[in-house]
Amino acid sequence: MRLLLVRHGETPSNVDRLLDTAVPGPGLTTLGERQAAALPEALAGEDIEAVYASTLVRTRLTAAPLAAAHGLDVLVRDGIREISAGDLESLPGESEPGERYMRTVFAWAAGHVRLRMPGGESGTEFLERYDAVVAEAAASGARTVALVSHGAAIRSWTAARALNVDVPFAAAHPLANTGVVVLDGSPSAGFTALTWAGATVTPAGEGGPAGEPVDPAG
C-alpha cells in the first residue's frame, strides 16, 4: 500500500502557535482553505483510492476537496486525530509545556510508550488507535490511501513505524500545513518513507532527506 499522510491546512491556532488538540477544534483560515483547495493538484500524480480524515473539523475540511476530485467520500476516523495535549491544551507551543508535549511525543516513537501525556493519553494508546486506522486502510485493498491527519501525530507515528525514519530526523523536520509524508509498505511488513514534504528520505543515519530544506510548521 502507498500511504500518504497529509497534515491539515492552516488554522487560527497554528497562526497563534497554540497547542490545540481537542475535538472538534477550529476550522481553517483563509490560507488554510486555499491550501486544501490546492491539494488535488499537488497530489494529481497519485491514484488515490481512499481518503480518511480525523474527527477534527480541520482535517475534514482539508480532505473534502481531495476526496471530491477522486469521486470519493471522506472516511472519518477518530484514530488519526491529533495527540491529545491533556493538561497542556491551549498553552503556547513555543514554551516549556509545548516542549514537554513534543518530548513526550518523540519519547513514544523511541519506544517509551508507557509514558503518558499530562492529563492525556499514553504512547501505547496513541499508537494502537493510529495503527488501527492504517490496518483498516490496508485491509480495504486500496493501493493508494490518503490519511489527512495532524503534525505531531504524523511525525510520531512515522518515526515509530517507518523503517528508515528515526526520532532525530522526525524531531528536526516539522511538517508544514498540507505537507505530505509518502510511505510504502504494510502493517505486517512495515513501512518505508519515500518522501517527506517532497524531499526524498534516505535510510536512517544517512543524513535525512536529500539535503533539501523542509519548511517549519505553521
Can you put this structure into words, describing what you see?
With 218 residues, the chain is of the alpha/beta class. It has seven helices and seven strands. It has helices at residues 12-16, 30-42, 57-69, 96-109, 123-139, 151-161, 167-172, and strands at 2-7, 50-53, 74-76, 144-149, 180-186, 190-196, 199-200. It has a seven-stranded mixed β-sheet, sandwiched between helices. Helix 2 runs parallel beside helix 3 (57-69). The chain is globular. The two termini are 29 Å apart. Residues 205-218 have low confidence and may be disordered.
Task: Please describe the topology of this protein.
Blueprint: E1 2-7, H1 12-16, H2 30-42, E2 50-53, H3 57-69, E3 74-76, H4 96-109, H5 123-139, E4 144-149, H6 151-161, H7 167-172, E5 180-186, E6 190-196, E7 199-200
Parallel strand pairs: 1-4, 2-3, 2-4
Antiparallel strand pairs: 1-5, 5-6, 6-7
Give a summary of the structure in a few sentences.
The chain has 218 residues and is α/β, with parallel strands linked by helices. It has helices spanning 12-16, 30-42, 57-69, 96-109, 123-139, 151-161, 167-172; strands spanning 2-7, 50-53, 74-76, 144-149, 180-186, 190-196, 199-200.
